[in-house]
């Protein structure tokens, strides 16, 4: 089993446990990445209604923003496509080698 598949299995196990306990849960999935992106397509992060998280979609850079949006997804039941990015020019200004873009599909679980 690959490392990402192993990680994702543990993340889905956490989500299933939260659901079994009657908690609201959203699942974030990396659906696209270009340039500098720390997590590959297919990476998962589960977010519970109390803000608990399992997994990662960016290596820590945008998890807070995804968790805030997950609260809305859990509340209204509507999935969302999130997009985060930085241009090459902006990346150089803050000391990064190149820019990048990350797309994340965020959906409620039931």
Name the overall outline: elongated
Q: What is the total tally of β strands?
A: 5
Question: Could you tell me the strand content as a percent range?
Answer: 25-35%
| Unreliable residue stretches | none
Radius of gyration: 14 Å
Mind summarizing the main beta sheet? 5 strands, antiparallel
Computed structural class: alpha+beta
Number of helices, counting only DSSP H or I runs of 4 residues or more: 3
Task: State the order of secondary-structure elements, H for helix, E for strand.
Answer: HEEEHEHE
* Overall average pLDDT: 86
Give the helix level as a range of percent: 25-40%
Strand order of the largest sheet: 3-2-1-5-4
End-to-end C-alpha gap: 27 Å
Number of folding domains? 1
């Amino acid at each position: 089993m690959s490392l990402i598949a192993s990680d994702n299995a543990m993340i889905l196990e956490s989500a299933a446990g939260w659901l079994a306990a009657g908690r609201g849960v959203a699942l974030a999935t990396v659906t696209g990445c270009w340039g500098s992106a720390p997590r590959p397509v297919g990476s998962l992060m589960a977010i519970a209604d109390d803000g608990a998280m399992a997994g990662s979609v960016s290596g820590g850079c945008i998890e807070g923003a995804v968790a805030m949006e997950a609260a809305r997804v859990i509340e209204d039941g509507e999935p969302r496509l999130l997009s985060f990015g930085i241009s090459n020019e902006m990346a150089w200004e803050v000391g990064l080698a190149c820019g990048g873009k990350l797309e994340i599909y965020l959906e409620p679980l039931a």
